[in-house]
Specification:
The chain is an alpha/beta fold. It folds into two domains: 2-123, Rossmann fold (3-Layer(aba) Sandwich); 127-170, no CATH class. It contains six helices and five strands. The chain has helices at 2-17, 35-50, 64-77, 93-101, 127-146, 163-170; strands spanning 24-29, 54-59, 81-84, 106-109, 121-123. Strands 2-1-3-4-5 form a five-stranded parallel beta sheet, sandwiched between helices. β3, α4 (93-101) and β4 (106-109) form a beta-alpha-beta unit.
Length: 171
Amino acid sequence: MRLTTLLASAASAIVLAGGAFATTIGIAMPTQSSSRWISDGHSMVDQFQAAGFDTDLQYAEDDIPNQLAQIENMITRGVDVLVIAAIDGTTLSNALENAHAAGIPVIAYDRLIRDSGNVDYYATFDNFQVGVLQANSLVQGLHERFGDGPYNVELFGGSPDDNNAYFFYNG
């Protein structure tokens, strides 16, 4: 919740720095198949609307072409700020170029958007620390269930196109 409050403040600052008050913030989320993204999306809508903004929240259902089309549609309709939780942080360069050309600031939410100089802000967590907390919880749970090790654990590193996966793994 703190991150969405910070995000709402950042969007407000972006708009006010430009000398005008934005009316619509486009929010592009990856999927509704995870309660996390549903919760984040609704929290953003609540925070932005409480700050006086209209919102356009869309979920792409983990379909990259769908997310690209949603973002392009938001740009065409003239949203004032884009908040994007990218499905694949390497596929949005052209869309972000169009947003930049239209004067629409872009906030990358949680997932870094790479290969583009047109991301104005990046709002995320301390993903290395998230990995540390996950590992500590795993070790504690193993110890509680099985006593002192050794333990055999198979680690999954996450998707290669998810920049956060590297930080989680290294944590």
